[in-house]
Every structure is written in C-alpha cells, then in structure tokens.
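Technical note accompanying the year-one report. For the benefit of new consortium partners, we illustrate the data format agreed upon in the data management plan: each record pairs a sequence with a structure-token string. No post-processing was applied to the example shown here.
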Amino acid sequence: MGFVAWVIFGAIVGWAGNLVVGGQDRRRQGCLVSVLVGVVGAALGGLLYRVATGQAKTFDFDFPSFGVAILGAVVLLAILRLVRDVARRPGDR
C-alpha cells in the first residue's frame, strides 16, 4: 500500500480499535493518534499473525487484513491503557 492508503487504513483501524477497547473514560482520540494507533496496531497485528501462523501477512484493503490490524490495535491500546493505569497508581504496590 502507498503512504496515503496507510494513513486511511490506519485512521479506520485506529478508530475501530478505540471503539472495541472503549472503557469508562471513553475520550475521543485525535485523528493523528488514530492514524498512529492504526498503523502501529497493523504492524503489531502482522507480527502476532506471523508468530501464530508462521506466515507473513501482507496488508491490502480486504477484510482479513482489517481484522488482523484491528486485533493489533486492540492489543496496543490495551497495553497502553494498562501502562497508563499502572503509572497513575504508584502507591498501590
């Protein structure tokens, strides 16, 4: 995919990942953050796919790529939320 396609794909994936993770503090993230989460999530999803199946995943505009990318974005957002929550409560340990 070209750069513009990655930005569009990343924005859609980042938005969808944020909808899936949701949470009580469901603040809307900005467009740039959605793109970054989507692109990094797609890369993370591709890595997870490769580890799980042993095959490389190429990303095109299709449903399997979209699903793998959303999975990666959800994992990324969950990790970021966990790190943020742990950093907020340093006295609980």
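Partners are asked to follow this layout when depositing records. Residues 11 and 35 are 4 Å apart (CA to CA).
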